[in-house]
Input
Amino acid sequence: MSIGKEELFLRIRHDSWREGLSIRALARKYGVHRRLVREALSSPKPKPRRRPTRRSPRLEPFKDTIDGWLRSDLEAPRKQRHTVKRIVARLAEELDAQVPYPTVRDYVTARRPQIAEEAGAPVEGYIIRHNRPGFDAEVDFGELQVRVGGVDTKCFLFVLRLAYSGRAVHRITVSSGQEAFLEGHVHAFNVLGGIPAGQVRYDNLTPAVRRVIFHSRSRDENARWTSFHEHYGFTPFYCEPGLRGAHEKGGVEGQVGYFRRNYLVPVPQVATLEELNAKLAAFERIEEDRRIGLRIRTIGQDFACEAELLMNLPEEAFETGLVLTPRVDRFGMIRVRMAQYSVPARCIGHKVRVVLRSTELTVYHGRRLVARHPRLTGRGAQTIVLDHFLEILLRKPGALAGSQALDQARREGSFTAAHEAFWSAATGALGDSEGTKELVKVLLLHRHMHRLDVVAGMSAALSVGSHLADVAAVEARKAAAAAGRAPTVTADTQISEPPPPPQEPAVTSLTMRRVAQLPGDARPLPQLGAYDQLLRRPRRDPS
Output
């Protein structure tokens, strides 16, 4: 087994002292020259290896010329300085010298900082920042791959990190757009229980910044982003563009990579992103026991001191979804961010209101919620719900067999084997057109009845040799009564209706809000007895 030179020196010195071996015996034992044994006995540290000075005969005549070009770069504009490629080209054009690119690259890489130091150019340095508890935070996005439902999906990791304690909140979404950006902030503020009172540092990312004002720290902000940070009361700070500003929020830059390497390797495999985000909360609790660098206290201990100094959350929530108003085309589809979603056929030709969030899309026609879909990210991706087209299929039953809506329902498992059996029996007895209409009528039952009841009704109808939707409806009501459920419900919506909308934040009346802030009225109630005299007419004098 080979050993290092320092270990070899240590063993030679040990054997010489403990066993009294001679130089010749030590050289024979370790298979080395006597000169090396003398060196080991004279000093426990080996002499550093002398690196040979490599000469480049083809470049040697032109080194002074290259040095002159590099010195002139010290006074030239930053974007008009010599690159290695340009130096190689000038050597060939002006001096007819054919020097390999790697040779010039190695020389320029070593020589450029030496020339800058000789000329007294300022050295790049950094100042350690003092972070006050509860004041500053940093935000960044990172990319990662997640296997969602068996499909490799490009996702984005949103991270908000408090600068003092290092407490970080993470959230994974399929988008890095403004809606995901705002939702990440709301989630982080709710988890932390407050808002940083100082600055929150950002890249010049598109969801927040429309334009960087030339040679300044000023930014032309996105209007919704301005409304958002004014609503929550924190101050954004934008770093310098590019790599020059990366150190200004180095804490979160390192946090993104650290969290991805330690908790998201190997590639996560989950059914939904909600499942993965629930795991992130458990990972964050583990992180609270970690110490950063040479700190004495843990992240959780520092955050316990910092949490009390955060600003309170506002009483009213901010709508983070992006509101759009697309028009429904003749195929019952709307296009949002290069993806298509189905809506009920009654909306064809009308404009609908879409609220786009990072994970879902909701569609309103007037004030009524008509559709809810998971958000799609692939270019040209489609989500088609079979229930949205049932009214059309009653008039055009022949379109069902080859429709995209039926294909998606089969792949999702919402069009079950019971539906297939009922359809086959109905078309066999009534023909393709009338049999398909009976199936469509059964599918309409899903809007008002539990899915299990409808499936049980179809199975019961087939067991008695019937293929009519009315018989399936009666049997479905019997199944509901046997299960102790109401016969007409809208609880299960796997085929027809989208799931019920989440609870919207309550709207507080400004008048009631002002009244609630007034001090209590301790004055006694007014006495109205004297006013009763006005209700009695005085007597007239008979004289």
